[in-house]
Amino acid sequence: MKYLAFLASFLLVAHPFHLSTTEIFFNQDQKTLEISLKLFVDDLDDGLEKAGFGKMDLGTSKENENADIFLYKYLLDNFELAVDNKPRKFSFIGKEYEKGNVVWCYLEVKGVKRMSSLYLRNHILTEVFSDQQNIVHVKKDSKTKSLRLRKDKDSGEIMF
Q1: How is the beta sheet containing 86-88 ordered, strand by strand?
Q2: What is the pLDDT along the chain (160 residues), one digit of tens a residue?
Q3: Contact 36, 22 (CB under 8 A)
Q4: Does the CA dihedral 63-37-149-18 come out positive or negative?
Q5: What is the DSSP string of 39-89?
Q6: CA 75 to CA 124: how far, in whole Å?
């Protein structure tokens, strides 16, 4: 019985793949891009440490009090976008934890009046894991388009 409990707890923490999912919604009424990034907590912790921010202990009672600041800096260095060939900066709205070792990070780009193309560069965690894949889904009106980015192809463009 102890073995099963150990195995179950191990499976909740370890995972055999390295993946992030990014969802971008063009909110035409608010003139914003609403961005949600879904990452594994332990992978993100490793990425922040490798980037020189130290151990964050994300999602624990020992979480570094500056974790959000360091996380925002990490995202600024590893996630870029341009709307209609114009580079855009995003704001960090916050993060929340989900069961199963997952963290959602929320970003926003304001002042987006229209969007016919979206260029993305997403190399989050590719410096840590050679098999890291970053899946991106972009929704505008009723259309959703996707990209699969990885270490050897960390950018792409979506046309609407």
Answers
A1: 86-88, 79-83, 117-122, 155-159
A2: 444 444 344 444 566 789 999 999 999 999 999 999 999 999 999 999 999 999 999 999 999 999 999 999 999 999 999 999 999 999 999 999 998 899 999 999 999 999 999 999 999 999 999 999 999 999 999 999 999 999 999 999 999 9
A3: yes
A4: positive
A5: EEHHHHHHHHIIIII----TTSTT--TTHHHHHHHHHHHHEEEEETTEEE-
A6: 7
d(CA 11, CA 93): 30
Residue 71 exposed, middle or buried by CB count within 10 Å (0-12, 13-18, 19+) = buried
Among candidates 136, 76, 86, which has minimal Cα distance to 116?
86
Contacts of 58 (CB under 8 A, 6+ apart): 41, 44, 45, 48, 67, 97, 103
CA–centroid distance for 30 within its chain? 22
Other C-beta atoms within 10 Å of 147: how many? Answer: 18
Contact 71, 93 (CB under 8 A): no
- Look up residue 64 and give its two tokens: 């570094």
Query: Three-state DSSP class for 9?
Result: helix
